[in-house]
Amino acid sequence: MEILIFVKQVPDDGIEVHLDPAAGTPDTAKIDKIANAFDTYALELAARYVEANGGNVTVAAIGPDGTDSMLKNLIAVGAKKAYLFKDPSFEQGDEASTANRLAQLVKKCEAENGAPYDLILCGKESTDEISGQVGARLAEELSLPFVSSVIEITPDGDKLIAKQETDEGYIKFETAMPAVYTIAKPGYDPRYPNIKAKMAARKAVIPTFSAADAGVSEAPCYVECVSYTEPPKREAGLKIQEKEVADTVAKAMEILIKDKVL
Amino acid sequence: MEILVYIEVKEGELVQGSLEALAAAKELGNATALVAGDADAAAKAAVYGAPVVCAKVDAANPDAILGAVEAVCKAKNADAVFFAGTQWGKDLAPRLASRAKTGCITDVTGMEKDGDAILYTRPAFGGTVIEKMKNHGALQVCTIRSGSYSKPEAGAPASIEECDPGEADIRVKVLEAAKEITEAVNLEGADIIVSGGRGMGSKEDFQLVVELAKVLGATVGASRPAIEDGWISRAHQVGQSGKIVAPKLYIACGISGAMQHISGAIGSKYIVAINKDPDASIFSVADLGLVGDAKQIIPLLIEEIKKRK
Ligand SMILES: Cc1cc2nc3c(=O)[nH]c(=O)nc-3n(C[C@H](O)[C@H](O)[C@H](O)COP(=O)(O)OP(=O)(O)OC[C@H]3O[C@@H](n4cnc5c(N)ncnc54)[C@H](O)[C@@H]3O)c2cc1C
């Protein structure tokens, strides 16, 4: 099975993002860029799938300079091929723009891959904007079956069974191929690269295409961000650290009663 | 402004988030509630005062529901469609928006009219940044973040209209819907939450968190590692991939304060943190911090609280 995963490069989500006081926009320039966590879960799930059932995994990203090193890292942890799409026109837009561009890019990826994709995966959401729309919109753009928050995929003849995680348990969906799924966190973590894979990946050349190369026409955009603000800060309160635990607890009780929370 | 609200139904009950979306719609314009399939649920929805459309479709299939929302939206000439900020809502909203060639705003916490347009407020980057958004598309589509509106007052029932939305484009088949988690965990409505994290060390010691919650009449919360290690079920997860909570009191035990966790609890009125690391980032958002071993502190706290009862 041929699997295509679209990956977004995001600021390291372990670092708090604040506004640049001069520009009034999120200041992510100094934050390391990493592959979106849910996209790495998608890659691990796909890598396990092809290890068990055969096939290849391609990762593709729209992104600025530097995105190629993220893609190289992904080659070290299960991706066979990687394509980068880089164009000034790709830097503007909303979720509709991204999904529309990705839908157009599938064709270019298939031409490069030399085979059509049976399954297209996205992370369930990106950790920066956290809007969770792109996978769903991509499925609509391509008029393909869509299942979200998938944590397990099993083959079933010419169909796939996708296990979706829900609040109460799970739902199993059957879909034809190709399909678009978004991936939640399965019960395992993405693998770490071994040295050999790392070395090989470092040497990989990532084919890079502009909008014109990829034949991408102008994408629609509907949503405008009018302004950014920061929410009021929470002040750090009192920290108690007595020699004896009993004293720490006694002092804390006093404060909790004084503050009328107990 | 004509606003259609998709009312999600779970085991015959209306989902709280959908009622919040209905409240948001009633504040902003003329709301119509859309219920898929279930006539009893339609009757339950009618008491919130907005006319109800009950679409005869297979409510278990998301493609059928999407088809119904699309058809009713067109038939009613709706200007906007609101969804709950649930998994289903977040799946349906962008798909509808894509079909209607418009934008969609996720996790809306507030809305105001700006002339004929709506100005939406939503958090991004785990809540450290707040965005104000406008959708220049013709149809306004959004999901409402849970806890952002209170559910509307019940009153005299409004009208119920049955509707057959016609053939939908069905692309997925539901094979099985399984319930693994049977306990009802109401984190969103809780007044007090006691949460435990990896710092509790083991399933046995995580029971201290459960006990403290019991003496306080609180709901138990947890960080992701505590759930992944199998100390407690997923229904208890607080944070970006779990529940967004806003209790009067939030007690975090052995939780470091990673943004993905804290973003779900930052709306709490009063935060107490118990952590052995004096530099843990949880202390920077806590109103009261206890530095020390949670396994020693919690039993003493339980004792003290019991004494005062
Ligand atoms: C995409 C994504 C989504 C995520 N979503 C969520 C989410 O919804 N919810 C969530 O919680 N996490 C989520 N996470 C994980 C999150 O990033 C953190 O890894 C997680 O919250 C850390 O949990 P923790 O604080 O329990 O563990 P740790 O970070 O390991 O912290 C343990 C803490 O316990 C303290 N400790 C250790 N022993 C003791 C002791 N004896 N007494 C007192 N204190 C002690 C330590 O000092 C430390 O501060 C997500 C991550 C990603 C990438």
* Uncertain stretches of 5 or more adjacent residues of chain B: none
Q: Major β-sheet of chain B, in short? A: 7 strands, parallel
- The amount of helix of chain A comes to 25-40%
Order of helices and strands of chain A: EEEEEHEHEHEHEEEEHEHEEH
Fold and architecture overview:
The complex is a heterodimer of chains A (262) and B (309). Chain A is an alpha/beta fold. Chain A has 2 domains: 2-214, 3-Layer(aba) Sandwich (Rossmann fold), CATH 3.40.50; 232-262. Chain A is built from 7 helices and 15 strands. In chain A, the strands form 3 sheets. In chain A, strands 11-10-9-12-8-1-6-7-13 form a 9-stranded mixed β-sheet, sandwiched between helices. In chain A, strands 2-5 form a two-stranded antiparallel ribbon. A two-stranded antiparallel ribbon of chain A has the order 3-4. With 309 residues, chain B is of the alpha/beta class. Chain B has 2 domains: 2-178, HUPs (Rossmann fold); 182-308, Rossmann fold. Helix content of chain B is 28%, strand content 29%. Chain B has 8 helices and 18 strands. Chain B has helices at 16-28, 39-46, 62-75, 87-99, 203-216, 224-228, 259-262, 294-307, and strands spanning 2-7, 9-10, 13-14, 30-36, 52-55, 80-84, 105-108, 110-114, 117-124, 129-135, 140-144, 160-163, 172-179, 192-196, 219-222, 249-253, 270-275, 288-291. The radius of gyration of chain B is 21 Å and the shape is elongated. At the A-B interface, strand 3, helix 3, helix 4, strand 9 and strand 11 of A face helix 4, strand 7, strand 9, strand 10 and strand 13 of B. Strand 14 of chain A pairs antiparallel with strand 10 (129-135) of chain B. The structure holds flavin-adenine dinucleotide (FAD). Flavin-adenine dinucleotide sits between chains B (197-199, 201, 223-226, 237-242, 254-256, 258, 260-261, 264, 274-277, 280, 293-295) and A (13, 37-38, 127).
